[in-house]
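> call design_seq(struct)
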């Protein structure tokens, strides 16, 4: 793979060998878009990697903000992770039912609160199942952990910072939504949003970074090629990722982290915020 930062991924062999390690905590961070008819909690209850707990993206959020799953406060995140039995010294492994699609949101969230001992299961549940590894429907009750959290501002961007970046263009905005939504020809899955994109942004749908057969991340050289084709000539330049609601963007941030750009912030509000306002420029 030749990743500069391979620590952000763990392979299924490694996880299978460490499932009984009390310092390794596994989280299912699956999430489904509105209108899909799927429920992550129900699917988790029916089958998950043994010993895993559910990292509910819809629950790990700021409940005072109407936007979808915005980052909670450090205090709330620490309390919720402690309730899940996670302590600051633990190694956290996150996965999702898609392969690699929503688990990177959990990976980024942990890092955004200062916890770097976190990795995504490469290939996620599809690869685990394809290899006939064990599954469970047991819901565990872990002992309470002692998790400490402190926000890392370098990994987070808000709308004010994004508007300022429109003036300076110091950072390239990489939008991870599907091409039709980026171009403004397909509707947004959430109502009340304008169609289009941020002026000056480039488009990199997340499926371009993932092997369609194995559901694993592409090798480093292929990631660089995909980035270049999308308009990211220098993957180490200042970059901000965005998407529909701050989930898919984390896949791109993870891809950039793997090849050496360790500080790629996510615009947490993403298009759910940008497309709903009347003071944010939009082009189609």
């Amino acid at each position: 793979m030749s990743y500069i930062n391979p620590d952000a991924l763990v392979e299924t062999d490694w996880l299978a060998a460490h499932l009984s390690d009390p310092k390794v905590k596994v989280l299912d961070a699956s999430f489904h878009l509105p209108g899909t008819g799927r429920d992550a909690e129900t699917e988790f209850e029916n089958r998950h990697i043994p010993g895993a707990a559910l990292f509910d993206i819809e629950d790990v959020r700021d409940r005072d903000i109407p936007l979808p799953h915005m980052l909670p406060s450090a205090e709330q995140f620490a309390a919720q992770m402690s309730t899940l039995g996670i302590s600051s010294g633990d190694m956290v492994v996150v996965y999702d039912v898609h392969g690699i699609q929503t688990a990177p949101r959990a990976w980024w969230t942990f890092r955004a609160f200062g916890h770097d001992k976190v990795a995504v299961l490469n290939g996620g549940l599809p690869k685990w199942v394809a290899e006939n590894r064990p599954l469970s429907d047991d819901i565990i009750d872990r002992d309470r952990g002692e998790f400490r959290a402190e926000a890392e501002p370098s990994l987070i961007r808000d709308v004010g910072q994004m508007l300022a970046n429109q003036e300076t263009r110091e950072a390239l905005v990489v939008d991870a939504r599907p091409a039709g939504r980026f171009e403004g020809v397909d509707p947004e899955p959430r109502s009340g949003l304008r169609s289009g994109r941020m002026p000056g942004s480039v488009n990199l749908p997340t499926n371009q970074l993932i092997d369609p057969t194995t559901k694993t991340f592409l090798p480093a050289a292929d990631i660089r090629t995909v980035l270049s084709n999308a308009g990211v000539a220098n993957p180490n330049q200042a970059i901000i990722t965005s998407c529909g609601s701050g989930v898919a963007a984390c896949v791109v941030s993870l891809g950039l982290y793997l090849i050496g750009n360790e500080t790629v912030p996510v615009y947490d509000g993403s298009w759910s915020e940008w497309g709903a306002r009347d003071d944010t420029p939009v082009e189609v």
